[in-house]
Design goal:
single chain
């Protein structure tokens, strides 16, 4: 599964507990980690475009 699809799933999942005022820290942490991973991949692609 690619990062963008997983981010979209987690963001949708985040809306459920947020709207019910439940604890959503775990889902938010996953989103932050995926965003960081996505940023690293984008930097690597920009830095080493022929390696992709």
């Amino acid at each position: 599964m690619d990062i963008d699809n997983r981010l979209e799933e987690l963001q949708t999942e985040l809306l459920k507990p947020a709207s019910s005022k439940a604890d959503y820290g775990d889902v938010a942490d996953k989103i932050y980690r995926l965003r960081e991973q996505k940023q690293k991949v984008q930097v690597e692609k920009a830095t080493y475009p022929t390696a992709n």
